[in-house]
Amino acid sequence: MTDLNHDNLTTADEADFDNRDLARAGSLVVRMARSDVECVEAQKLRYEIFFEEMGARPTADVAASRIDTDSFDPICDHLLALDESRPEGHRVVGTYRLLRQEIAEAHQGFYSVHEFDLEPMIARAGPNHRFLEFGRSCVHRDYRSNPIMQLLWRGIANYLAHHGITMMFGCASLAGTDPDSMALPLTFLAQKFRAPEGWRVPAVAQRYINMNRLPEGSYDERAALRALAPLVKGYLRLGCWIGDGAVVDEPFGTTDVFILLPVINLPERYASHFLGEGKEKLARVQF
Predict the structure, then answer these.
(1) Which of 101, 111, 218, 223 is the most exposed place for a label (fewest CB within 10 A)?
(2) What are 240-285's pLDDT values in tens digits?
(3) 112 to 82, 98, 171, 202, 284: CA distances (angstroms)
(4) Regarding the domain with residue range 11-283, which homologous superfamily does it belong to in the CATH classification?
(5) How far apart (Å, rounded) are the C-alpha atoms in residues 159 and 285?
């Protein structure tokens, strides 16, 4: 297997990247958060969507602050979509939380370990892959359209190229906590997008929910696709693989599945411009 050479980034490199616009369309711009104030604005958007709109149950502290935050926020990078035509303090209209492998290993690990067993995947990858965990993604209700998701993913593609990331992963959520009521989309994901052997990350044993709930060929695949959230459908279009088993997240009112997305699977319109020759290098890494 090809061993990737990841050059160390200097402080100046990082500062230049953080101050750069990663994607733009009209008044919409995607870039990294540049201050604690902008991070808090993203956390307020997360609270609005996860707790007020989607009905997640906040802790007393989170409810009092009306900010969605946890112990991972200080060590993560925060990708923002901003509408510069909006008033100051209300410009963040989309966000992704990004946690690189070297940062996770230097602190408290990855967020997903509470739901999925990552150790075999990371051990199998060895030095040939560099992981990025994505999460806490959301977009303001007035901006949920294909253009803003394309801008966010152009920003992520820039981030991948800058940091030499080869594999992305995270949890994607289906609304609801009754797996039987989600038999159609869960089965569809398990049967049509299952990760290859060796990359099939399982849900932790004590929380494992079988996703394969319907006989193969017994359901309408188009109806199953329609039952998925737009964000999950977006991951499928990007070439993601699905892990083994789902997990019910009662506080957030969701059923979570594991998303694994090799960078080499990204469609050309996202990858070629930003990764350039790096995409050819990644193509030599065996999966």
Answers:
(1) 218
(2) 999 999 999 999 999 999 999 998 888 776 666 555 555 555 555 5
(3) 27, 12, 7, 11, 28
(4) Gcn5-related N-acetyltransferase (GNAT) (3.40.630.30)
(5) 19
Structure tokens at 91: 């410009």
106 exposure class (CB count in 10 Å sphere: 0-12, 13-18, 19+): exposed
Distances (CA, A) of 29 to 1, 19, 146: 38, 12, 15
pLDDT digit string, tens, across residues 256-265: 999 999 988 8
Strands 254-262 and 167-175: antiparallel
Specify the pLDDT at position 272: 61
CA nearest neighbour of 138 among 71, 78, 93, 184: 93
State which amino acid sits at residue 134. F
Beta-carbon count within 10 A of 164 CB: 17
The confidence score (pLDDT) of residue 128 equals: 81
Q: Are 143 and 83 in contact (CB under 8 A)?
A: yes
**Burial state string for 183-200 with b = 16 or more CB within 10 A and e = fewer than 16:** bbbbbbbbbebbbeeebb
DSSP per-residue letters across 242-283: EEEEEEEETTTTEEEEEEEEEGGGS-HHHHHHHHTHHHHHHH
- Is residue 31 within 8 A of residue 229, CB to CB? The reply is no
**pTM for the full predicted model:** 0.88
- Residue 217 CA: distances (Å) to CA of 52, 193, 279: 38, 15, 36
Tens of pLDDT along 168-190?
999 999 999 999 999 999 999 99
